[in-house]
Write a structure and sequence with these properties.
Two copies of one chain form a homodimer. With 226 residues, chain A is of the alpha/beta class. Helix content of chain A is 41%, strand content 18%. Chain A starts with 6 loop residues before the first helix and ends with a helix.
Chain lengths: 226, 226
């Protein structure tokens, strides 16, 4: 029996192989890795800025900041106090892939990392198809984008483990119903963990930090137990 | 001299050929066609809903509504009173291409159209590479997304003719500087026309309608003159 293999399948299987290598390296070193995905302007960089300020002394953080053009996000993270930041400029590509991440990872001091954020390109479609070796995907959406987004971009919400709803301080000003957003997301993925917060007002951020602390701790315990 | 042609180049050249066919058909019939692009949640469907209410009796409108999954946008447009709506569900693809549009166009009564909107998939990266036979691209961004987006997603802003800044009623509530946004966009594309508006409060919509009326009129005159 023969089977036709498309170019897209070959690219993805090569990507999966590289991602598996990354995942294995992260596991061996006890690095918890988050692939942070969202639309443009949902607040990925703002969330990381707040996280650096709050946890930068407590947890050994590193960040890979992906962007189509510019290194603006990486610059913002450095200004926020991040010690280890690697920018990836995709030069037009709509997503990060495992090869780009592997190249950046080689430039990081992995022994000095407990929590690695990969800030993906702002795009709710394409990044969902590319495993980057992360422990899990966190999908960020903001109240200003509308509560229908999980239904309209289901691939991303299906493949994410945590859904962060940002700009919750603007809830009353938008035609956004929180119950509807959560119900729509659960319809796509019944296993999602939900966090609501505002990077601007600060409300809800303590829960995010608590979730991160716990994830990092679990990962360290897994390493010791293996 | 030989030249290597990549798969991507072949796909795009086939797309360009189909798009040129569409453009020629639209020109012959005097149809002004807009490819409406933005991030998810910038307000493409809301802008079309308002446009249907305001201009639906005055201009013969038709809409092709592209979405990764669901036909929610097409349903919203029908509820707003649109007489001619065709949904395209891409089934995971991150953009519309000319083949999908040509298939939808064949199902429209083209003699009864003066203004055709193609609402693209919510994505600031991939749709910029696919000509759909439109007269021009209108890129929509909202104040809640941040004023840096033209620099970060330059391909889309470079290939657009009009930049609509939506949710202008929320300007004071966001860390969005209008001058900075315009300056960033001009840096990428010096020929952009700018419109600021709010689909919610209605401010600025008359300018949008005026711009559309003029575009449709010019297109009709071009047909008569050819």
């Amino acid at each position: 029996m023969t089977r036709k293999v498309t170019v897209a399948e070959k690219v993805l299987s090569e990507n999966d192989r590289l991602a598996a290598d990354l995942r294995e390296r992260f596991a061996r070193l006890g690095i918890f890795c988050i692939n942070l995905v969202s639309s443009p302007g949902s607040g990925k960089t703002s969330l990381l800025e707040r996280t650096i300020s709050a946890l930068g002394e407590e947890i050994k953080l590193a960040m890979i900041a992906g962007d189509v053009q510019t290194e603006n996000d990486a610059d913002r993270l450095r200004r926020a106090g991040a010690r280890m930041v690697r920018p990836i400029t995709t030069g037009g590509a709509c997503h990060l892939d495992a090869r780009m991440v592997a190249k950046s990872v080689d430039q990081l001091d992995l022994e000095e990392i407990e929590l690695l954020f990969i800030e993906n390109v702002g795009n709710l479609v394409c990044p969902s198809s590319y495993d980057l070796g992360e422990d899990l995907k966190v999908v960020l959406m903001s109240t200003t984008e509308g509560d229908d987004k999980p239904l309209k971009y289901p691939g991303m919400f299906r493949r994410s483990s945590v859904m962060v709803i940002n700009k919750i301080d603007m809830l009353e000003l938008c035609d956004f119903d929180l119950d509807t957003a959560v119900r729509n997301a659960r319809q796509i993925n019944g296993n999602l963990t939900f966090l609501t917060l505002s990077c601007r007002s600060g409300v809800g951020l303590e829960d995010w930090y608590g979730w991160l602390r716990n994830a990092v701790e679990q990962k360290q315990l897994q390493r010791l137990g293996s």
